[in-house]
Design brief:
Layout (H helix, E strand, L loop, with lengths): L2 E4 L4 H8 L21 E2 L3 H6 L6 E4 L13 E8 L14 H10 L4 E3 L6 E3 L2 E8 L2 E6 L13 H14 L8 E6 L4 E6 L7 H6 L7 H6 L14 E7 L3 E6 L19 E8 L4 H8 L5 E2 L16 E7 L2 E7 L10 H10 L2 H8 L4 E3 L25 H10 L7 E8 L2 H17 L1 E8 L1 H7 L8 E7 L8 H5 L15 H11 L6 H14 L2 E14 L2 E3 L14 E2 L7
Parallel strand pairs: 1-3, 4-13, 4-14, 18-19, 18-20
Antiparallel strand pairs: 1-7, 2-3, 5-6, 7-8, 8-10, 9-10, 11-12, 12-13, 14-21, 15-21, 16-20, 16-21, 17-21, 22-23
Helix pairs in contact: 8-10, 9-11, 14-15
Amino acid sequence: MKKTILFAVTMLMILSFLLTACGTKTEETPTVEPVEATTEVEVTEEAVEATEEAVEATEEVATETPEVVEAAIAEQVVVAIGADPADLSPFVGMNMGRIAVLKTIYEYLFEVDEMGGDMVPLIAQGVEQTGDMTYVVTLFDYVYDSAGNNITAADVAWSYNSGIAGGNLRPLGDIESVTATGDYTVEFVFKKVLGVGDLAKLLTECPIVSQAAFEASADQFATAPVTTSAYLLTEFVPGSSLTFEARADYWQADPALRTLFAQANVQTIVFQIITEPAQHAIALETSTADISASVTGDDIVRFQGVEGFSVFSFLDNLTQVLEFNGSEGNPFTNQALRQAVAYAIDTTAMCQAVAPGACAPAHTVGNTNFGGYNDAWDTQPYYEYDLAMAQQLLATAGIEPGTLTVRLMAQNDARSGLIAQVIQSQLGELGITVEITQLEPSVYQTESRDATKWDLLINAAAGGDFAFSPWSLIYDQNRNNGTTANFFLDDTLQTLLTTSRSLAGFTPENLGAFNQYQSEQMYAYGLLSYYNNVVAVDGITAVVRDTRGQVIPGACEYAPDFSQP
């Protein structure tokens, strides 16, 4: 059976993409979901129910024609980042500095336009599913890097195989093989049948570089990589700054086909490395920097409503979650007890205690940044604080107030500690004693997988869409030696999850059914999401971020006369 996913590289799609709202989630569903108006789809029942067979279909993405707006071109912008990227090589491990600059340095087969957004062509122009676990990617045949090397299928296969061999690009572990099947066609064979979100994750994670350029001077790539990017790195002073210049010879000459990462709305980008958080506010106030996403929460008030600055707030692509332990013999195998705890927690008060003015209560495990999110969930009942109801459910669970002591585990960061203290206090009102343990991240990762170590767990769920994550990260029974991440076994939950994450089953109806069921069962309780603030000087009229929450300087909007002093 054969399934085709055609990414329409047309003026209509790309122009719409260019004009999406900066830093905000579009209301469009992911491209993998069938669109009745533009798609002819034939779906087998087996694929919907179990994702075990490929779907015989053709999907095309199209959008309405928007009004074309010419972007303003700025001279220079200075972006403050909080860490040194150190090594700029394409296949090394990730750190915060590399995350901040990586998309300016390298290009990928596809990109995701925004948080919760669509996968759009970059180096590749399309992808076709030719078997249950086999996909063929077709490249643009005119991709050239800064040294004049034409990027071919052989370069793509070599890049992916290098990334797999290096072991630092973890999503690539799901790839069985990558083979050039023509000058500009590449075959991907995966180790499993892909669900929604899987393909985008795998085709947007590996930088594509020329094999000849890399093998000629691998050491060069650490400080001065040869890349296909719209920007060329002209200076790298480790520990201090990176300077990029827009390329006049960028391979994608058609502005209508450029992604957000190739807009080049500013001629020169300088990433200023400032590792001390308190210095970011000072850098903005002294005109050392124009943009920072690392101004501390306490310092944000220095810029709110202050002439000369704008503060852009974005809901983080992450939800703080309270997980219940479902292992045999644990008290939280009792549904009424789980529901009692949820009703006893006041998430509005928690936000005020943890991050006043920079926090929002959750309405599910996830938030509006995730693909497939239904805005109606924000207005549906979701365990609003009700101590009387909590007390009633505690009685239903057969537990007398003052007789239950539970262990709450969290990481040792300040915000997790505050969340733990709020939960401890609020459950105390219900008559449940909470003992808090905070662990450093590496120990936490180990201990959280041990059912004997905790009863309640403060965790974070992040990702691009619900079916791929965060729901799969918690509820997939393959996450933890045949159980969910929190040790529950529920066949109904697994069926709903499998259906929702299939390419054909990623529908509002299926997502709604899963959300309702997981909410009723209360295996995990969505607590809150944070707002991230980006501070910019006047003249920067809109800030655009990537799926990791990092600023894309070349896609931000600038006043026509903007220039860094």
